[in-house]
Design goal:
- Helix 1 runs antiparallel to helix 2, helix 1 crosses helix 3 and helix 3 packs antiparallel against helix 4.
- The longest helix has 23 residues.
- The chain has 4 helices and no strands.
- It is flat.
- It is an all-alpha fold.
Length: 104
């Protein structure tokens, strides 16, 4: 259950980072409010996962899922560049997440 909480927290991190981009520096009310709500939910889920998982592992997985998801969302929905270096970087992050999970 702890892993599900951390994974869901990472997905929520992608949502709030996407909302943050859409808020244009907190100048748009709807996306700004969404950013704050999803940030809080993400932290709550992370905290639940951290009840039983090691700090470093839980935090690294949470930020890794968020980073990979945000990069993918930017490429898929915002027209950000898809380059071999970016794809390789994402692959390395995923590999790190998998290794951390296997080490636990």
């Amino acid at each position: 259950m702890a892993w599900a909480c951390v994974l869901f927290a990472g997905i929520l991190e992608v949502v709030w980072s996407f909302s943050l981009k859409a808020s244009h520096g907190f100048t748009k009310l709807g996306p700004s409010a969404a950013t704050i709500v999803f940030m809080i939910l993400s932290f709550v889920m992370l905290a639940q996962g951290m009840k039983t998982l090691p700090l470093g592992t839980a935090y690294a997985v949470w930020t890794g899922v968020g980073a990979v998801g945000a990069a993918a969302a930017g490429m898929l929905f915002l027209g950000e560049a898809v380059t071999p270096m970016r794809v390789a970087g994402i692959a390395f992050i995923v590999a790190g997440i998998v290794l951390l999970k296997l080490a636990h």
